[in-house]
């Protein structure tokens, strides 16, 4: 009973009237910004706008309630939409729904298997590149709002007064967000900008493009719908590659966004829980006619900047979006696109890691290269490819640097034996440097190699030790290896008999290879 009272009291302390107001208004701001994004991504994927809006509502609500990061916003995203295009064009929207369901199942399995923890393997330069690249992508996506329909279904840039009015209203929105953020505390700054510019446009009857010019957002509740596709291996062969790619992109973007929001808010998030929640959301979305989705860094930043910190803000955003579809489509369609573009431009400014420009000449050149590379690949390709490329390049750079860190202090003991005291990791990248440390032909008759300050990390390291033993054997020298882990001793083939056993001082670690049979440990030399 005591714990129940305490829990209720703590919830009451958290959800004060002021906090509830902040969370709900933050959700309203996010919902307003979600509308054009969802519609635009639906157009990208060649599906009806409601397919994108339903996805934004369902994915947003499910992840808001069960995701690993309270306050993070999910919905239909461009990173997924560009992958869906060929599937929809070739096979139709029903195959897309089936793919989204399979995508969700794969993501749930990833959550159950706790694969989300591997996001910690993404180096910080890759994270910075992801943030900067995504900020550029968001910026470039807004430029499409400065185009109008041209001849033969083409898009042409605005000109003259239409362009100047669009730029002026966009700039006004940005200025209002900055000023209201300093002087107005009872409303989120982006919401102030949207409401003020919308009121100005409607009051003066200005001729500008609005949300309604993109598409009508009016609709009903989404209906339960089993994808109308053959349930056979042929269908699985069609949708599985797409589902696998979409699942990977969705999880990578979601987990990186989770880390970014957690860093900004100085809180922790559950990576594997987020994987499972994203999967469940996409399964539900596929059965209710949505295009699937993942975390949205732009809208998440709007929520954070507006004060949203709990599940109430992200849940409110999803419910407001549904309310727009059901009841308020007429009002929402009157919002000028310039106001929403201004909000997104402010998101770009807040998202871009400007500090990376200042430190570019101070950090190692390899890290700077990875940062720029990931940003560029994010812009020209997609997020998943950028992160994979960044991690691979960063790993290769690390392997190269580590390959030069194995060194030896050479000395002679009281018995006239030459002692090599190694330091650094021994693995595939450092094998060549390891071999260059020794010269069996010029060494004395008895040699000791001390591994107390090094670690043998892989099969290549074990093979290098065996090869070293063979070199000293051919040179008719006596070699002894000391302070190897018991695992290394057991896995060595040729050098097994040269290991000096000293159990009290030997390190304990494992070498994850199936290298060979275990050999009997030799007696002390």
Automatic annotation (TrEMBL):
Where are its TM segments located?
24-44, 50-67, 72-89, 95-115, 122-141, 161-179, 186-204, 239-262, 312-332, 338-357, 369-400
Q: Which UniProt keywords apply?
A: Membrane, Transmembrane, Transmembrane helix
State the membrane topology. Multi-pass membrane protein
The record ties this protein, via InterPro entries, to: Membrane-Transporter-like, SLC26A/SulP_dom, STAS_dom, STAS_dom_sf
What region holds the STAS domain? 419-496
Mind telling me which Gene3D superfamilies this protein's record contains? STAS domain (3.30.750.24)
Name its cellular compartments.
Membrane
**Coiled coil regions in record:** none
Do you know which CDD domains this protein is assigned to?
STAS_SulP_like_sulfate_transporter
Tell me what this protein is called.
SulP family inorganic anion transporter
Species per Swiss-Prot/TrEMBL record: Kordiimonas lipolytica
